[in-house]
């Protein structure tokens, strides 16, 4: 099986300036995503390509000595606040397909600002697609702490009502609700090439551990993630990623 991994990181960010260039516990933030991909490659028999789509020269420079990453310049129309990430992933796929001159079975995007993942999470993503080949997209989620059928409200004039009207008297009675944590997306290449919106297709999910921070969108997110990471290093899957980073030549001198 041939898999294209994509990493997308633009130069500008409204929430946290230059967040893609942050140093996280001694290593560039992107190192955690690359280490996850590298470990997956070691532990699987799949053929792997990795492509970074960015308009940041600094981000390109961070990994310029990592020969396995295909660098793709982000198009101007994809470098705005309103640009769809799916469009960026599609363009990355089409360019990689042309440059590498090969077909891909899956396209998997790992979010650069969501470093709290394990190699096993990636395997789970792929297994979900294998078990359900009819799925066009598989993405990662965590269990939501709030439920629109039970304890989320919306304003209607001078009063509020449940987001989804119901008569449930306990959260346990309500349907299970999940937050999309944006960490991982697996696309069927044909669907990716022909569609603009993930929910135009058949979607499946895999549940990840809830680390309390979905991604890094603010300085507060970043500080909190740094704080809890010390504790998370006691977990084997997280420790595996962190320990692997110095073994990658590009980051050994960081």
What sort of overall outline do the alpha carbons produce when their principal axes are compared?
globular
Number of helices: 7
CATH topology grouping: Spore Coat Polysaccharide Biosynthesis Protein SpsA, Chain A
CATH superfamily: Spore Coat Polysaccharide Biosynthesis Protein SpsA, Chain A
What is the succession of H and E elements?
EEEHEHEHEHEEEEHEHH
- How many distinct domains? 1
* Low-pLDDT runs: none
CATH class: Alpha Beta
Supply the helix-strand structural class.
alpha/beta
Q: How big a fraction of the residues is strand? A: 15-25%
* Distance N to C terminus: 33 Å
- What would you say the CATH architecture is? Alpha-Beta Complex
Major sheet: arrangement of strands: 5-4-1-6-10-7-11
Largest sheet at a glance? 7 strands, mixed
Structure summary, number of beta strands:
11
Structural Rg: 19 Å
Q: Helical content, roughly?
A: 25-40%
> Mean of residue pLDDT?
92
Short overview:
The protein is an alpha/beta fold and 254 residues long. It has helices at residues 29-43, 57-62, 85-100, 119-131, 189-194, 219-232, 236-244; strands at 2-8, 23-24, 27-28, 47-54, 69-73, 106-110, 137-143, 153-156, 159-162, 178-187, 203-207. The strands form 3 sheets. The chain has a 7-stranded mixed β-sheet with strand order 5-4-1-6-10-7-11, sandwiched between helices.
What would your notes on this structure say?
There is one protein chain. With 254 residues, the protein is α/β, with parallel strands linked by helices. The protein has one domain: Spore Coat Polysaccharide Biosynthesis Protein SpsA, Chain A, CATH 3.90.550. 31% of the residues lie in helices and 23% in strands. It is built from 7 helices and 11 strands. The strands form 3 sheets. A 7-stranded mixed sheet has the order 5-4-1-6-10-7-11, sandwiched between helices. Strands 2-3 form a two-stranded antiparallel sheet. Strands 8-9 form a two-stranded antiparallel sheet. A hairpin with a 2-residue loop joins β8 and β9. α1 crosses α4. The longest helix is centred in the middle third of the chain and has 16 residues. The chain starts with a strand and ends in a 10-residue tail after the last helix. The relative contact order is 0.19.
């Amino acid at each position: 099986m041939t898999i294209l991994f994509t990493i997308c990181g633009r130069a500008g960010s409204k929430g946290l300036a230059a967040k893609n260039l942050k140093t996280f516990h001694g290593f560039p933030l992107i190192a955690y995503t690359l280490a996850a991909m590298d470990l997956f490659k070691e532990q699987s028999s799949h053929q792997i390509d990795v492509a970074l789509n960015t308009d940041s020269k600094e981000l390109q420079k961070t990994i310029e000595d990592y020969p396995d990453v295909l660098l793709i310049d982000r198009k101007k129309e994809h470098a705005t606040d309103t640009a769809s990430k799916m469009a960026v992933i599609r363009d990355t796929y089409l360019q990689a397909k042309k440059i590498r001159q090969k077909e891909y079975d899956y396209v998997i995007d790992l979010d650069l600002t969501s470093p709290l993942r394990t190699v096993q999470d990636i395997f789970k993503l792929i297994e979900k697609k294998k078990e359900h080949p009819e799925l066009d997209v598989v993405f990662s989620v965590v269990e939501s702490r709030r439920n629109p059928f039970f304890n989320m409200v919306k304003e209607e004039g001078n009063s509020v009502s449940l987001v989804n009207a119901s008569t449930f008297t306990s959260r346990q009675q309500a349907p299970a609700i999940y937050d999309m944590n944006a960490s991982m997306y697996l696309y069927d290449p044909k669907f990716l090439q022909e569609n603009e919106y993930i929910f135009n297709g058949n979607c499946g999910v895999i549940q990840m551990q809830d680390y309390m921070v979905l991604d890094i969108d603010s300085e507060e997110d970043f500080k909190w993630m740094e704080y809890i990471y010390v504790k998370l290093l006691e977990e084997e899957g997280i420790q595996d990623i962190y320990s692997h980073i110095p073994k990658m030549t590009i980051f050994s001198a960081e």
